[in-house]
Write a structure and sequence with these properties.
The protein has about 400 residues and is an alpha/beta fold. The protein has helices at about 15-25, 40-60, 70-85, 100-110, 130-135, 160-170, 190, 240-255, 255-280, 305-315, 335-340, 345, 360-385, and strands at about 5, 65-70, 90-95, 115-120, 145, 170-175, 195-200, 210-215, 285, 295-300, 315-320, 320, 325, 330, 350-355.
């Protein structure tokens, strides 16, 4: 039996052996509280400080600007809600329709608190128009949040341009960069952002740990209070093992970036060319804009994405559907709706996301198996129609 093909790296990535090796001591013999003053606690503090220094170097930041969190969603929440509540200016938030739920739902929390929320439309490739963004900021805003790399279609935003627009108007600018490490270069000063969120499990680190870059001088109100850890911005005993793992994973992602992104782009482009030739009527969502090198969101109009996903899973292939099930009814994802993708295409969208586990042979086999699965679904549908009694 052939080995399984994992093509869902945008959902999560496996922990690298080098990362696990760096973490292991802090699960056991060295697993002490970094806030304790004794020798064991000081050793844990040294590991925590070393990880903070490493993450700061990887992002082009100062160590004091790195706040460790429980993941990307918490980092997004802390950025959007925390910066808005700390603002003494306008009670308004500006974001985009294709943002991750961690940002959109954070904005919803603020709306319930009386903030005005402006949600910008995007074009067919998932891009925010800088002119529309600038116009949205003109009445004044507390925070603007636009994601660097979209998690469904891989669309890349012109973050440096948008951040400059926000800075010129005195608006705090946040970007969700959770999908970016190891796929695009990240330098907070080149980007010009005030707040930037990452999550370790997206770049071969552990789950349950993330980080938020907070530019010096950016006011943020904590969401979790207690012992005052993380410079008072995120109380709670630090997850030293996870933080060490995040730092090591980010170091590796940065060092391998040029070669890995070139390899991923080559694999993705070959896969998309094969699918376009093999499956007439398929369409690549967001293909007209700049994208991450490892994500292909492909629509197969008229096909039920969950059905296709299950068939592929049975054949040893792991992917994600481009739609979500809510209240028993399958609805298109909010990202595809925002792009204006037709309903039949949105409901038949599959996201393929490649990574270190993916070889050129894998994508060749994936394309073949995808064609077979689609033919099987079509055949089963035809059989069901012919089996219906005629009255």
């Amino acid at each position: 039996m052939s080995a399984r093909i994992y093509a869902d790296h945008a959902a999560t990535t496996p922990v690298r052996e080098e990362v696990l090796a760096a973490m292991l001591p802090y699960f056991a013999a060295a697993g002490f509280n970094a806030s304790s003053l004794h020798a064991e606690g000081r050793a844990a503090r040294a590991a925590l400080d070393g990880a903070r220094d490493s993450v700061a170097r990887s992002l082009g930041a100062h160590p004091r600007e790195i706040v460790f969190t429980g993941g990307g969603s918490e980092a997004d929440n802390l950025a959007v809600i925390g910066a808005a509540r700390a603002s003494l200016g306008p009670r308004r938030i500006v974001t985009a329709a294709t943002e991750h739920p961690a940002v959109l739902n954070a904005a919803a929390v603020l709306r319930a608190e009386g903030y005005e929320v402006t949600v910008l439309e995007v074009d067919r490739d998932g891009r925010v128009d800088p002119a529309a963004f600038a116009a949205a900021l003109e009445p004044g805003a507390a925070v603007a949040s636009i994601m660097l790399a979209n998690n469904e279609i891989g669309a890349l935003a012109p973050i440096a341009k948008l951040a400059a627009i926000a800075r010129a108007r005195g608006v705090v600018f946040h970007t969700d960069a959770v999908q970016a490490p190891g796929r695009v270069a990240l330098d907070v000063n080149a980007l010009g952002v005030d707040l930037l969120a990452i999550s370790a499990h997206k770049f071969y680190g552990p789950k349950g740990v993330g980080a938020l870059y907070v530019r010096a001088g950016t006011p943020v109100t904590p969401l979790i209070v207690g012992g005052g850890q993380e410079a008072g911005l995120r109380s709670g005993t630090e997850n030293v093992a996870g933080i060490v793992g995040l730092a090591r994973a980010l170091e590796l992602a940065v060092s391998e970036l040029p070669a890995e992104t070139a390899r991923l782009r080559r694999i993705r482009d070959a896969f998309e060319a094969d699918i376009s030739a093999r499956i007439p009527g398929s369409a690549i969502n967001g293909a007209g804009g700049e994208r991450l090198p490892n994500i292909s969101s492909i629509a197969f109009p008229g096909v039920d994405a969950p059905t296709l996903l299950v068939r592929l899973d049975l054949e040893g292939i792991a992917v994600s559907a481009g739609s979500a099930c809510a209240a028993g009814a399958t609805e298109p994802s909010h990202v595809l709706e925002a792009l204006g993708v037709e309903r039949a295409a949105a409901l038949g969208t599959i996201r393929f996301s490649f990574g270190k586990l993916t070889s050129e042979q894998d994508v060749e086999r994936l394309a073949v198996m995808l064609g077979i699965a689609l033919r099987q679904i079509e055949s089963a549908s035809t059989d069901q129609l012919t089996a219906v009694p005629r009255f």
